TrEMBL record:
The modification N6-(pyridoxal phosphate)lysine is found at K116. GO terms for molecular function: L-serine ammonia-lyase activity; threonine deaminase activity; threonine synthase activity. This is Threonine synthase. Its EC number is 4.2.3.1. The keyword 4Fe-4S does not apply. SUPFAM superfamilies: Tryptophan synthase beta subunit-like PLP-dependent enzymes. PANTHER family: L-THREONINE DEHYDRATASE CATABOLIC TDCB, THREONINE DEHYDRATASE, MITOCHONDRIAL-RELATED.
Amino acid sequence: MTRATFQGYRCSLCGAEFAPQDWLYTCPHDGGNLDVVLDTPAIRQQTSPRQISAQTEPSLWRYLPLLPVDDPGGQGTPLRTAGWTPLYSPPALKAQTSLHALWVKDEGKNPTASFKDRASAVVVARARQIGAEVVVTASTGNAGAALAGMAAAVGHRAVIFAPRTAPPAKIAQLLVFGAQVILVDGNYDNAFDLTVQAAQEFGWYCRNTGYNAFTAEGKKTAALEIFEQVILPNRLDRPLCVFVSVGDGNIISGIHKGFKDLYALGWLETMPRLFGVQSTGSAAVANAFFAGTEEITPVQAATLADSISVDLPRDGVRAVRAARQTGGAYVLVSDDAILQAIAALGKAGIFAEPAGATAYAGLLEALKSGQIQPDDPVVVINTGSGLKDVKSAMRAVTEAPVIEPNLNALKRLLEKNLR
Ligand SMILES: *Cc1c(COP(=O)(O)O)cnc(C)c1O
Ligand SMILES: [Zn+2]
């Protein structure tokens, strides 16, 4: 059964429309990413911001009327705890940035510790609905961990392809969640292509980012939460600025979709400005933005932020538009700046993996360049937990001293440090 509000798909490149068929991925004409089309008047009849906020559902499933899937069930499992992540207003970061209104949304608090749980939860719901027995994805680590975790939660089969170089914690998650894990002797882009072929060959349902239209629908729930947690309760007199890191570009285009849905519903008055942040070593989307085009030229990605290390972004066109159509921009940061941002967030009690800290590094850069003013209200999204990649975390800090376990040794150390 298809939800009454799910009307079909529209190609982001040629605008062709397609009925809500079960196994459609990208546009058959030009390979463009498909936007899910919803029946806005029907949603408006079913619910309202007031009704949504009155709920107690502490997960992204509070937005079921705005999602193109049926309720997946799974009560009492981690599938029901994806999303509805905490929002902080850290004094230490306000002091560092001199911003009057600054929030950090911590996606590291998702069940498998990254933003990707939003997409994977909705894709697993979709798989259950269309009777797909096996879900497969390519992943730099987090998307796979999220799919493995969400699938395990409800006893669904998952197959994950990841580069063999993925951080060990992410590979451990895949294995512990009981997915069939295949490490590819190559990069993420190689894994991506293999996954698409395997899905076709074996009839598996493919979750790949920038390929499956439902990932963006899951990711848009972060925008719905920012609407509920930041925009509704605060009377902002300037447009909200949202900073998020960009690899394939599916998170930023999902967030854009969320705000566009809210705008179409008439619930959102002012479109937030979306700022995509990339590493200088993996800047394919930013390059297109700066060149004033939507044409994405692949790069040879090299950054310590593995989650945003992408040669050919699979959702690049919509990712460029997300910034361009909202009066936002792209910002580039160095790997050094990313490590410094890990340390800065850490001192505010927030532990981010490199790709998560990238967004905060981007905010600092945008302040320096004058793109952001002190009275701009800002949300920074930390997309993943620092526990995902402790090796990089250790590079962001100085090593701890080792002493003999007695008071004299401690006194000597403290004297040395005081001097
Ligand atoms: C996937 C991911 C990103 C980037 O998302 P895209 O959709 O690839 O742009 C950023 N941070 C983390 C932690 C991620 O896992
Ligand atoms: Zn098309």
